[in-house]
Amino acid sequence: MTALMTQAGDADEADPTAPPEVPRRTGGTGTRLLRFALANLTRRPERFVLSTLGIALAIMVVVVVRTISIGFAGSGTASLADVLDGAPLWVASAQGVHYDSRLSAMLPGGPAPPLAAPPGWTAQQTIAGAWATGRGRLALYGRRGVPARQAEVGAAAARVLGVSGGQRIHVGGQALTVEINGTSRIVTVAPAVARRQVGGAGWWTVRPPGRLAGQLNLGQVLSAATGIPSSTDPAVTAGPHGLIYDTVGGGGSLTFQQRFSALFSGKVTGSVLGLVSTVGLILGFVIAVTSFLASVQERRREFGIMASIGLADEILYFFLVESAVIFVAAYALGALAAGAAVLVLAPGVASAGAWLQAAALAAAYLPAMAILGALVPVHRLLQQRPVALLAGAS
Amino acid sequence: MIGYGVRYGLLSTRRRRKALLLPGLTTATGAFLVVLVFSLAPAVRQQAAAFGHADQVFRATLLITILVLLTGVVEVAVCTTRAISQRTREIGVLTATGVARPSVAAALLIEPMAAAAAGAVAGSVLAVAAEVALAAAGSLSASPAPEATGLAVALAIGVSMVSAALASILPSWRAASRPPIHSLSHGG
Predict the structure, then answer these.
(1) A92, exposed or middle or buried, with CB in 10 Å at 0-12, 13-18, 19+?
(2) CA-to-CA distance for B174 and B109, rounded, in angstroms?
(3) Residues A95 and A209 in one domain
């Protein structure tokens, strides 16, 4: 009896007719979807690698161009800070002002317009021009407040001149003691010295009286008092009477500095560089869509079975997760490769900060591209009946 | 024996020419940009100078132009993987009847290389036509030197064909190496 019971117990434990026990997997729906997506992607490793590579190349192109664009915009913003020196108003000559990319500095087109500052307002004239030294061109600014026998030299300008703090340079026929100040390619001296070296071109920077500080209509107030038109838009160019740039006024969502920076980055994105990167991005998207279309075509039977048991929306989720995996992998690869490329090819233009900003900007495209890349092929698939999918798959 | 594979590849390429339109178009787009940017290098360099560090920005422009061409060529390789998947049974028949692996791989490689070559030539021709049109309209400060254009065309076609072959060789070889029974039973 005992022997019989033991046999029966053994038979229960190893019943050959019992269905095999499916091991239970842990993890939520997201984890399961991710596992399913990875399993599908590794089923066709070549296509996964190729589509990731294609999208990564497109992202790399975009990040390189955006890094250069942000780096250039940063130079523009820095040059604006050099001009304003903390003042909220900038009065440009009738001939306007322009950015000299080789000097990384703003230069005037002509002499500053006549300006009689209202009582209580402080107007400071800056003489500015390009100074051809024996070792290279530099921007020379003349500002009140700099001692007559001193030259404030930016670090980049000091490298060009081959001088360090305490040494002497000659500007406008006068020997000046060097004091290193900032990182720019600008040499700042007393106005009379600068005038002798580069002429009388320049601009005004104006500060309001303390009681008006913080007001957002300073440009209009100064314009009413002087007759010089004012603008809060850096894209506006000066007229025959010059122009007051109000760098703190205006009610828009962007500050004057941000719009000034956008003008610079717009020049890059509107150039050949920007055009090429846009084409690259479009090609990357085409690769994503065609890759998913091929995948849909090959898996019609699989999706037919899924659709016939009521899994319609889930097919979309499968593709969305696959698309997300490909785009995230491509983004990581593309952004890192772009950083390396910029570091090697254009270290002077771009910084690590510019690359990070560019990479973050490119990340903003990703969700839209990943969703569209998955939606377009799946939309076509979901239009068909399960029986049509199963019939057409053989 | 590889010669037969190449001839078979050319025949199947002609049969499947409609499927090669998109990869040809993406390669043509990249080649168009490469020829235009490289042959108009002085003007591009002048534009780069406006952003400071002219040489560095110019080098970056050349790099991203080549990258766009490579992106276009990757589409050719993606198309190859799709073609291999669609032709699994055909590949099985070839290998089952004793066609050697290199010949099958050569037959499969002809298609991407033909698509890349045709796309690169079309893109180059369009770019040269665009240069001539721009020069005639007076939009170019100086016409590009014929040597520069010739080099740019050679670069576009060379890079397209070599990269298409490199990107497609692995899937083609793997498909040719698959056991015939596997290809015949799994072929779609």
Answers:
(1) buried
(2) 12
(3) yes
**Based on the domain organization, do A338 and A307 belong to the same domain?**
yes
Choose one of A213, A246, A279: the last residue of a domain.
A246
Q: What span, in angstroms and rounded, lies between the C-alpha atoms of A291 and A374?
A: 10
Which residue's structure tokens are 């500050």?
A255
d(CA A312, CA A306): 7
The DSSP secondary structure of B82-105, one letter per residue, reads: HHHHHTHHHHHHHHHTT--HHHHH
**pLDDT at residue number A2:** 44
From the list A254, A258, A202, A260, the residue with the least C-alpha distance to A234 is: A260
Tell me, yes or no, whether A39 and A111 share the same domain.
no
Among chain B, residues having any CB pair with chain A shorter than 8 Å are 22, 26, 29-30, 33, 37, 44, 47-53, 56-57, 59-61, 63-65, 67-68, 70-72, 74-75, 77-79, 81-82, 85, 167, 170-171, 174, 188
Same domain, A39 and A145: no
Chains A & B: contacts with CB separation below 8 Å: 133
- What's the pLDDT at A215? 82
* Digit-coded pLDDT (tens) for A159-201: 999 999 999 999 988 999 999 988 888 999 999 999 999 999 9
Count of alpha carbons within 13 angstroms of residue A121, beta-carbon side:
23
The boundaries of the domain holding residue A384 are 30-71+270-393
> Span A135-148, mean pLDDT?
92
Entry pTM: 0.82
Q: Assign A3 a pLDDT band (cuts: 50, 70, 90).
A: very low
Q: A152 is written with which tokens? A: 């404030």
Q: Quick check: A347 and A297 in contact, CB under 8 A?
A: no
Residue of A nearest to B185 (CA): A394
CB atoms within 10 A of CB A306: 17
pLDDT tens figures, B94-130? 999 988 999 999 999 999 999 999 999 999 999 999 9
Residues contacting residue B75 through CB under 8 Å, at least 6 positions apart:
A54, A283, A286, A287, A290, B22, B23, B26, B27
